[in-house]
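Q: Could you fold this chain for me?
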Amino acid sequence: MSDQNPDALKLVRHFRQILLWPLQLQPIRSGAQIQEPWDILKRASADNPWSESRDEFSCDPAQFQERHYSEFVTFLPYVRSFLYGEGKAGSAMAAIESPIRVFRRTDVAKVRMTFPGAASETITFDVAHADLCLFYDIDVAILIVEICGRDLSLARVQETMYRFGRAYPTYWREDNFGGHCLARAEWLARDGSVLAVSDYEQRERFLSFVGQHRAPYFASHWQFLLKPLVPDHGAEKGLIRYRQIEYSRMPLLAYLAMDDVRALSRADFVRLGLVTAPGASDALPYSAHYVRDFETRYCYDQFWNEERTGRPGTRFMACGHAFVMVGDANDAFFIDSDAGLLGQFRHQYFLLFLIPHFHKAALLMLSDRMVHALNRLDIQDAESVKRFKRIIRQLLEIFLRFTHRYWFHEVSDQPQAKELYRMTATYLGADRLYDEIRNEIEDMSGYLESDTLRRQANTVVRLTVVTAFGLIGTVVTGFLGMNLIALAEASMLEKIGYFMIVLVPTTVLTFYTIVKSKRLSDFLEAISDERMPTAAKFKSLLDVWGKAPRPRA
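A: Sure. Below is the predicted structure, expressed as structure tokens.
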């Protein structure tokens, strides 16, 4: 093996990468709990390249394929309802659609990538599909882009995984290229024409946008791909507006079919599993101490055995941010796009990766909405307080519906799918984030409920005081009887006059009692306290008409 070119042994015969970009959608209709952005995307227009994609279950049952069946049976029943909906149970029952709406654009056929460096190498990948996933009752959208290429060097595959899914640069190099980004990315149409070009090198554009809006500027080619959706902080008009919800680096899945998987060193596997920049195969990208338990933490090696003669099998790696599958290009089952591992990578494993990222995005969206509501709260403004209470109650209702419709800890009973899902969800911290959001919303909801009870208690106290003091007049008039002033023979005008003479002072006295009800309740409490001396009780009576105490700073 030493006589062969090491780079030739590390040729990736078939490479696929699927990017997921979770985004938070802004409300379209103010005050409405359930937004329906898919209604806008359904409208055919010149500036809307998206069309709703029909799922495999909408086909004729006779055309239902084994690949679809294999995907379906991977998941537990309650997850199937989330992914696929439910069919008709009888003639009287209608089918229940999946809460996921998928839209696809077909005008983007390829992506041309120019990598940074003196050579400025350019590689063109096929775009297998560009989809946009929307979720009922959750204001989250996930952009999905799948690219594929053949006969690529391992270094270029590593660099593609590392640089392609960047929404914006985190810094700029001395040559003005965006840090960690491609030198240039171009979306191409089927005829080869350029549809959009990246602008990572436009340093001033990114800086000025952040300085003005306190929000990141997304690279132009990603903005193009999402149209007619527009960034919420930009000046461009659009009905569906989105915001960043996570880090600038998009989560990804990668599939590598190689001639000789054994040629990969441990450093190569670490770079693939943790998605780092390419480097020497004999040098780890991180310290040996940091990656000492890499195989235990990030690798699922049930079907991987380097000591076995012949093919070592398939290695799965999951770190939360990425899911990577590496196998033998000469293994018919590994490269089978229908019933083999390639088909499973694009469907079962893709869904196993999508679900926890959707969970995290939905929880981050709820957290952001709660923080936004708190920032807008002005406790001195009654209208602001009412709006805040309404928003918190809506968030609690959305969270409860999310819990019952979308949230689950396990998605499959199949050991491999179960373990890979657990690895991804664990590294994303979805369970911990769920507990934090639930506690925050419940604490806020509990505060609002206690505040409502406090207000109701104050109202009851005031009514009790008014009733107590009104009881004096009621008893007196009842004792004297209704004949104190004989008006049986009086004219109607006299009766109305006497009625008004009694009504006006009684009304004034009642409202005055309400105004002083808080102090009067303190006086009544002092009167009822047998341990309080008479002088203190008398002082409590005088305090009813004393000056109001100054509020504390």
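A (continued): The chain has a mean pLDDT of 84.
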